Amino acid sequence: MKNLMLKIAALLFVLSLSGCGYNTFQSLDEEAKASWSEVLNQYQRRADLVPNLVNVVKGYASHEEKVLTEVADARARVGSIQASPELVNDPEAFAKFQAAQGQLTSALSRLLVVSENYPNLKADQGFRDLQAQLEGTENRITVARNRYIETIKNYNIAVRSFPQNLTAMMFGYKTKPSFTVENEKAISVAPTVSFEDKK
Question: Between 20 and 30 A from 58 (CA), which of 22, 64, 96, 130?
Fold first, then answer.
């Protein structure tokens, strides 16, 4: 009789877990990890392109050493951050990762602006191929980040919604940070447009 009662209690416990959102959290957590892995995959693809791009530019624009050094330093900072699945559970580490990726994006933008000053570089097939790959990768990063943002939104809603929030507290599920805009204040200010002639 005691074994039967234990089995019934265990069955009720399992059924209550599925009804209280435990399985939902398992599913959303795995989805978040998969989305994060795809973001990392695309960032790694970009990081792998950087040395080749720098070397091609260096061949044509060796005196642009400052820009080339900034790109190399930004890539090194990105590479120094241990990008593990646990990173998304640590808001401070996540912010550092996001800042490092932002610095690399900015440095690459400056590098591409510099390339505009060198017609021979722009005509180089290797440079054009790398530039096209980089542009494609930036698009993939945007798509992967958007998927991750959506996944984290769904996860965070589940963590904060009643009665699932009780399950989240019981099993230690907490909200996860999402990607944010680097400088939210700057984008909230409308740009100044002037049609006056500049002399």
Answer: 96
Domains in the chain, please, with CATH? Answer: 22-179 (1.20.1440.20)
CA distance 64 to 72: 13
Q: What are the Cα distances from residue 184, in Å, to 124, 144, 175?
A: 38, 21, 21
Closest CA to 150 of 182, 179, 112, 119: 179
Q: What is the pLDDT of residue 150?
A: 93
**C-alpha to C-alpha distance for 180 and 98, rounded to whole angstroms:** 9
pTM of the full structure:
0.70
pLDDT at position 184? 45
- Rounded CA-CA distance 89/171 in Å is 15
The residue behind tokens 């996540």 is 94
Measured CA distances, 61 to 52, 104, 124, 197 (Å): 14, 19, 13, 33
